[in-house]
TrEMBL record:
Matches recorded under Pfam families: HECT, WW
Organism: Geodia barretti
Taxonomic path: Eukaryota, Metazoa, Porifera, Demospongiae, Heteroscleromorpha
Pathway participation: Protein modification; protein ubiquitination
Region (Disordered): 1-86
Official protein name in the record: HECT-type E3 ubiquitin transferase
All copies of domain WW, residue ranges: 151-184, 206-239, 246-279
Residues in HECT domain copies: 336-672
Polar residues: bias regions: 35-44
Enzyme Commission identifier(s): 2.3.2.26
Length: 673
């Protein structure tokens, strides 16, 4: 005989009281052979809720599904209930059990998780339900456990328990079950105005566009209805801001999961991904030097051949430096080092008036600051190449500006050697002939093209045509303080005309004069300075391009490589703060990225083989982001460990602003150590 279980409708004013359910007494045992589970109920609000954009959990199934729920929640062996109304405020639920199955010992009976049974379409769902569903015969211990599990459930959810004491959860809104307890607050994207609860009438906003209407949910939250497209939105139609990254690529769509995490759908390939396609399209990996076996073997042999620290040498080479006099103090400190083997000890830079300890970060910062001073054209040692104001070349007239220029070029050579020996980078790039001269390799006509395009075109014309109509001689002109001075390319060259038969000799001498002869003394001093650190012959295993990357690293920053070689402490790659951080980096220009990298690591350059080779206090150390501080504090950096302490900011714009303040004011606040 079928049993009837009545469900009392709870008044909405007592819903909060019902949520804290006291320990209930053990209900009477069901009759033998009965398959009845008591359907106590949960509080269910029926006002409009936005739908979850994510697909259903694979372990969930709807009540209409006829197949068993796999793998975690098999269906309850019950037929759909019939409902009859006995009073205006009371709903009776009749549960008809199926045939009694063959008895199974309780110890071996599998856990059965009932699925939410759908309400017939022609009947309204009860207004409120209790939060806990306690099975008949449950012990007081189990009753207390399920009531605790029901505490704090979102609206529309109910906790239940299987016969073996395992707690499960029912979502009566979506007619699904799950073993995992849902979060207290479910985030949704778009409200759905088609649910049973009626919206609350509100005074209409006169600024709404035509066809829009303002409504309010039962909880009082405002949403907007666009009758033109029959869609709804939480956002005011006039407050939508343009995305900083611009529109999505063709046939791409951005969606949001129930927990607020964004993902992206590519309808071109029917695939999804977490990465914003606008970021990857805008920042494709930049071309960098391949870490080939040949170069790896070269570099390994080079490091092995470098002189080692002498047994009785000091452990550190201390360099006291004043920031405001970094060039003068560095020149004095490095020039006076005796014996030269002390250069092989670990560098320990101590900035005057600062308490920072140097575990590698201050030394990197020293090289960075000194690069800006040492190679500045202001001192007359170097000048910008004719083609741009970025690459540098030795100034042929350095002796006019500084009578001790040879001593300074020897100091420059020592700094180049120290940078290579201690694996630091200089914030400067030179013309390609500069590196070839260090390696004693000949400079060719092709090298001239990237340095002086106008001179290259003139020489190319002479090479391809008869030069006699041009009336050229074996001489060249230079300008010193506005005065044009003629120099002979060889003895008596001013009297020797360039002809078809000797034009190749003329071109060879012109290239040699342009890049080598005029700066030979300065280059000899640089090479002598490098030799004070390690034998120059060791460097000759590399070509000019490899030496350029050894000294200056990569000029461009590959953001994808940066992400790939970043460690996270206290965060995961899916945390919103980390997503915002990389979004800010993607939106930065090249200069700001370099400044951020310098703020954290002490250098604005990346090693020739990418971020995987960033150097720390005791060898390679990856870029690190650590969770630290409050949302109102500024980020801090630890250059010795390539680490930035990033507080858990609550908005993208706040993170970007705090990061900008920290990077641009690193010298005036205690944010770097």
């Amino acid at each position: 005989m079928a049993r009837h279980t009545s469900i009392d409708v709870i008044d909405e004013n007592t819903a909060e009281e019902e949520e804290e359910i006291p320990v209930v007494e053990t209900p009477p045992q069901p009759e033998e052979g009965s398959n009845l589970h008591t359907l106590d109920s949960i509080s269910l609000d029926t006002h409009p809720h936005p739908p979850s954009p994510s697909p259903s959990h694979p372990s969930l199934a709807t009540a209409a599904d006829s197949t068993p729920l796999q793998p975690s929640a098999p269906p309850l062996n019950l037929t759909p209930p019939t409902v009859r109304q006995t009073a205006p405020q009371t709903t009776l639920l009749t549960v008809v059990p199926q045939a009694t199955p063959t008895p199974v010992p309780q110890a071996t009976r599998p856990a059965v998780v009932p699925r939410a049974t759908p309400t017939p379409a022609h009947l309204a769902m009860p207004t409120t339900f209790k939060l806990a569903r306690v099975p008949m015969g449950a012990s007081p211990h189990h009753s207390l456990a399920i009531q605790r599990a029901a505490h704090g459930l979102p609206q529309g959810w109910q906790a239940g328990m299987t016969s073996d004491g395992r707690v499960y959860y029912i979502n009566h809104i979506h007619k699904t079950t799950t073993w995992e307890k849902p979060r207290l607050q479910e985030r949704h994207i778009v409200p759905v105005a088609t649910r049973t609860a009626q919206p609350v009438a509100v005074e209409q906003d006169s600024s709404l566009p035509e066809g829009w209407e303002e409504r309010r949910t039962g909880e009082g939250r405002v949403y907007y209805v666009d009758h033109n497209t029959q869609t709804t939105s939480w956002d005011h139609p006039n407050s939508k801001k343009e995305d900083l990254l611009g529109p999505m690529p063709a046939r791409w769509e951005m969606k949001q999961m129930a927990d607020g995490r964004l993902f992206f759908v590519d309808h071109n390939t029917n695939s999804t991904q977490w990465e914003d396609p606008r970021l990857t399209a805008k920042n494709k990996p930049t071309e960098k030097m391949k870490y080939s076996r040949d170069y790896k073997q070269k570099y390994s042999n080079f490091r092995f051949g470098l002189p080692k620290t002498k047994p009785r040498a000091p452990n550190i080479l201390e360099l006291p430096i004043r920031r405001e006099h970094v060039f003068e103090d560095s020149f004095r400190a490095v020039t006076n080092v005796r014996p030269l083997t002390n250069f092989h000890s670990r560098l320990y830079v101590r900035f005057a008036g600062e308490s920072g300890l140097d575990y590698g970060g201050l030394a990197r910062e020293w090289f960075f600051l000194l690069s800006h001073e040492m190679f500045s054209p202001y001192y007359g040692l170097f000048e910008y190449a004719a083609s741009d104001d970025y690459t540098l070349q030795i100034s042929p007239e350095s002796g006019i500006y500084n009578e001790h220029h040879i001593d300074y070029f020897k100091f420059v050579g020592r700094m180049l050697g120290l940078a290579i020996y201690h694996q630091h980078l200089l914030d400067a790039f030179f013309i390609r002939p500069f590196y070839k001269m260090i390696l004693d390799k000949p400079v060719t006509l092709d090298d001239m093209q990237s340095v002086d395009e106008e001179l290259y075109n003139s020489v190319q014309y002479v090479l391809e045509n008869d030069p006699e109509p041009l009336c050229l001689t074996f001489s060249a002109n230079k300008t010193v303080f506005g005065e044009v001075i003629e120099e002979e390319l060889k003895e008596g060259g001013a009297e020797i005309a360039v002809t078809e038969s000797n034009k190749r000799e003329y071109i060879t001498l012109l290239i040699k004069w342009r890049f080598t002869d005029r700066v030979q003394k300065q280059m000899d001093a640089i090479k002598q300075g490098i030799s004070d650190i390690f034998p120059l012959r060791l460097l000759k295993v590399f070509d000019a391009r490899e030496v350029e990357y050894l000294l200056g690293g990569l000029a461009s920053i590959d953001v994808e490589d940066w992400k790939k070689n970043t460690e996270l402490v206290g965060y995961t790659q899916y945390d919103q703060v980390i997503v915002w951080f990389w979004k800010a980096v993607e939106n930065y220009d090249a200069e700001m990225r370099a400044r951020l990298l310098q703020f954290v690591t002490g250098t604005s350059k990346v090693p020739m083989n990418g971020f995987a080779e960033l150097q720390g206090s005791n060898g390679p150390r990856k870029f690190c982001i650590k969770r630290y501080g409050s949302p109102n504090s500024l980020p801090r950096s630890h250059t010795c460990f390539n680490r930035i302490d990033l507080p858990p900011y609550d908005s993208y714009h706040k993170l970007k602003e705090k990061l900008k303040v920290a990077v641009e004011n690193a010298d005036v606040f205690e944010g770097v150590d």
